[in-house]
From TrEMBL:
Residue ranges of the TM segments: 55-75, 82-100, 120-140
Record's keyword annotation contains Cell membrane: yes
Annotated keywords: Cell membrane, Membrane, Transmembrane, Transmembrane helix
Name of this protein: DoxX family protein
Lineage: Bacteria, Pseudomonadati, Bacteroidota, Cytophagia, Cytophagales
Topology versus the membrane: Multi-pass membrane protein
Cellular component aspect of the GO annotation: plasma membrane
Domain of life: Bacteria
Species the sequence originates in: Runella slithyformis (strain ATCC 29530 / DSM 19594 / LMG 11500 / NCIMB 11436 / LSU 4)
Principal localisation: membrane
Similarity-based family: Belongs to the DoxX family.
Subcellular localization: Cell membrane
Length: 146
């Protein structure tokens, strides 16, 4: 089981996909967890998820953890396959609950009622590549299996 989770191709592909995921997800996770980048922090985000969106607390908590801890784990290459699966599930959920009605494209010109789901598909694609390839070079996963 350990090899299935932590095994990785020792190449630059995994390094590039996981670093991209980590760098893109981190600001979103830091907004939700720490209140950085104009975010509301953990308590404010949990209140928004549970009181405004009426999500169960475990869903709100999971979103915050996946975006914050997942981003850090991607960056260092720890358990990237697990974080990839969680990220895929999260972003599929985000598409179907919040963005599907807004169409494909992002709201570049402010003339849509909200953001489309193209960004989410990119995150899913990068997560799929990381799921297949593993964490790649210079990762904790590489050190665990060797």
């Amino acid at each position: 089981m350990k090899n299935k989770i932590f095994n990785t191709n020792n190449d630059l592909t995994g390094l590039i996909t996981r670093l991209t995921l980590g760098l893109i997800l981190f600001p979103h996770g830091a907004q939700k967890m720490l209140g950085l980048f104009g975010g509301y922090g953990f308590n404010g985000t949990m209140a928004f998820f549970t009181e405004t969106l009426h999500l169960p607390w475990v869903v709100g908590f999971s979103v915050i953890i996946i975006e914050f801890a997942g981003a850090l784990s991607f960056a260092v290459g720890f358990a990237s396959r697990i974080w990839s699966v969680l990220t895929i599930i999260l972003f599929i959920g985000i598409i179907f609950t919040s963005h599907l009605d807004n169409g494909f494209f992002m709201n570049w010109f402010g003339n849509q009622k909200g953001e489309g789901y193209e960004y989410h598909l990119l995150i899913i694609g990068l997560s799929l590549a990381t799921l297949v390839n593993g964490s790649g070079k210079y990762s904790i996963d590489e050190r665990i299996v060797n």
